[in-house]
Amino acid sequence: MMGRNENAMGPFRISVGKTYDAPPERVFRAWTDPASAKAWLAMGGDASIDPRPGGLFYLGMPFENGTHPHYGRYLRVEAPRLLEFTWVSEHTRGKESVVTIEFTARGKQTELNLTHEGLPDEEMAGKHTVGWTHFLDTLVARLA
Question: Which fold has domain 13-36+74-143?
Answer without folding.
Answer: Alpha-D-Glucose-1,6-Bisphosphate; Chain A, domain 4 (3.30.530)
